[in-house]
Design goal:
Layout: H1 2-28, H2 56-61, H3 70-77, E1 84-85, H4 88-94, E2 103-106, E3 111-117, E4 128-134, H5 143-155, E5 164-170, E6 173-179, E7 184-185, H6 186-191, H7 200-218, E8 224-225, E9 234-236, E10 242-244, E11 251-252, E12 261-262, H8 274-279, E13 281-282, H9 284-300, H10 316-320, H11 327-333, H12 344-357, H13 368-375, E14 390-392, E15 396-398, E16 404-406, E17 458-460
Parallel strand pairs: 1-5
Antiparallel strand pairs: 2-3, 3-4, 4-6, 5-6, 7-9, 8-11, 9-10, 12-13, 14-17, 15-16
EC number: 2.7.11.1
Domain Protein kinase: 98-379
Keywords: ATP-binding, Cell membrane, Kinase, Membrane, Nucleotide-binding, Plant defense, Serine/threonine-protein kinase, Transferase
Amino acid sequence: MAASMLGGRVFDQERKEAISNMTVQKFNWRAFLPCCGITEEPRIPKPSKKQNSFGKLVLSDLSNPNSTTLSEDLSNSLIGSNLHAFTLAELTLITQNFSSSNFLGEGGFGRVHKGFIDDKLRPGLKSQPVAVKCLNLDGTQGHREWLAEVLFLGKLRHPHLVELIGYCCEAEHRLLVYEYMARGSLENQLFRRFSVSLPWLTRMKIAIGAAKGLAFLHEAESPVIFRDFKASNILLDADFTPKLSDFGLAKMGPEGDDTHVSTRVMGTHGYAAPEYIMTGHLTTASDVYSFGVLLLELLTGRKSVDKARPSREQNLVEWARPQLNNPKRLNRMMDPRLEGQYSELGAKKVAEVAYQCLTTRPKFRPTMSIVVEALEPLMSLEDIPSGPFVYTAPTEAISQNGDAKKENGDHHRDRHRSRSPRSSSTVHSEPGMQKNVKNGLNSPRHSQARESSPVNGVIQGTVS
């Protein structure tokens, strides 16, 4: 028995040696081809992936915040971008030492202050208000997000991307200087408790502009995936022109034959695409899903996630998407602060686009260019009711003892919109709203208390 086992082992050893020799012989056989007059077919190298103009190599080279040559290397990589490398002293000066009176807000990156650049600060730099964003060293973002913002916005220019004017990189300090956006974020304009409701056409203008910004990123020579598209990252200028901001989480899109980018799951709950959450596979379709969520917010006036609502209504997509194809349910879903003053045809079309963007099958979502084509005609629809968006200021009555007393109570609660086109004291917030007076009778809410609110002291609704 033992001899038999030993013989088997010897046989196995001999077989392995024979296979090894055959492998060597096979490997060396190519060397003999030329002497036999046989030429081997040349190998065609696999095409190398297209290099990004400012992509992964630059990010990796500059991702060390402790590099002694970081400022110089960054300046070299941004040649031709027209970005200004500000000093900390300059930014301290223009923000009045980051005064609390200039404080605009705070996000995941850090605090934002308003500043003013005069023509004496830098040659060739025009006088203008700016927003200065300071990286919070103890916050959720860091040097890498700051760097991504500088590299992306330093190279990309579009009417619907916020303009980065410059940056500051001194010691541990990381700051960004943007154009000043007078209306702030869409999130504040849409959801702030005591703000005036955004008119329907303004909402459509914002949706179309944001869609154009995403389409530009997706169709660039080196496609960019925004990854954190949401209402708070859409800034509005004085005319409500939207611009995408905060590129800290943006990623270069897939290259060559790749279908996706594998990355850590980051973003905002309620906006992130389900397949990205489950697999970490990021594509431009992930941004399309997030845009669909934004359309729901514009339609309903609800946040993507709202824990204050009943449990089955807390997630906007889960609650709203099943109802989008039902016209009656859609009318009931519309933002009540619009008070019926919207285009029914336009709302139906927006609902259709949102439904397609929010499908769980990424390949069936439309591209952002197709979304833009679908939404642009909505600005010219004329089935919007004629009643203006208005704001009722509190009237004051003099009591018997001579004290001023408000008749209407808290003016924030008395905000309303007049239904009667005959009210001469009404100031229109959208000049084109009275094109079709007759169509105002078709408002979904026209039959509700047409003249239930006073018209005394009516002022324009679109205020900052």
